[in-house]
Amino acid sequence: MVSSDNHKLLRFGIITDIHFSTENEPAAAAKTAADLRACVDCWQRNDVDFLMQLGDQIKGSSSHKEEEFRQVSSILNTFPGAIRHILGNHCLALPRQTLMAALGLQTPFYAFTIKGFRFIVLDGMDVSALRVPETQEDVQTLAFFLAHPELHEYCGAVGIQQKAWLKLELEKAKLEGKKVIAVCHFPLLPETTDQLHGLLWNHREIAELLASSPAVKACLSGHYHYGGYACYGNIHFIVLPAFVNRHEHPSFTCGTVELHEERMVIRNQRNETRYDLAFH
């Protein structure tokens, strides 16, 4: 049984892979904008504490990327609360620093605490074809994965400095008794994606690191447009369906996540339960 509302700790809105495009005919673009506004209405009706946008806000077309970002931002920013953004691969059609400044991000990976839950946000494009590696180890990581094109050059990896930061964050959360929700644009388990979409390049290493911490309860991702779920190391790995494919899976356009003391409940835009997952 799900806890009563009196015991609900936290509720936030969630959406991923909007892929907002202005290349389509005006009627199609207008319908996309209307559907996105309906998501904002959903979150406001459900009185969420904040909004989490899991990456790939824009399609990232070469001639329209700035306008795509302007339009999608103008809609999302009508949400009256805080918005937590995660960088996706399509987002980085815009320069990284320009994008981060526009999204209000000081760093592309970060952590924050709300009502006893610690959110750890990973930058899955830390080491990628779109960025000059910062360390020799990251140079080697990039070279290795680019030598394996089946792993897709549009994916990326968590770099050595971010891994060190992640280890410290997990240790701190354990010592403070916080429950951790990890977030990454890319899926971390092969069972939750397909070959076409791919996953975080060093997914196995990061999944193992998360699984080594008793503080981590769940990991939320996007990127794989049809959604997926797997449990590994007592952690729920949830990949949410993409907004851009909403006509193919109308059962999930956007949703809300409720975090209770002992469980997580994810509902769709119609307030129907998609996942009801007990914490281990």
How many strands in all? 12
CATH topology: Purple Acid Phosphatase, chain A, domain 2
In the predicted model, the low-confidence regions spanning at least 5 consecutive residues are: 1-6
The percentage of residues in β strands lies in 15-25%
Structural commentary:
The protein has 280 residues and is α/β, with parallel strands linked by helices. It has a single domain, classed as Purple Acid Phosphatase, chain A, domain 2. It is 28% helix and 23% strand. The chain has six helices and twelve strands. The protein has helices spanning 26-45, 65-76, 96-103, 136-146, 160-176, 203-211, and strands spanning 8-15, 50-53, 82-85, 110-114, 117-121, 179-183, 216-221, 228-232, 235-239, 255-260, 263-268, 273-278. The strands form two sheets. Strands 3-2-1-10-11-12 form a six-stranded mixed sheet. A hairpin with a 4-residue loop joins β11 (263-268) and β12. α1 runs parallel beside α2. The protein is globular, with a radius of gyration of 18 Å. Residues 1-6 have low confidence and may be disordered.
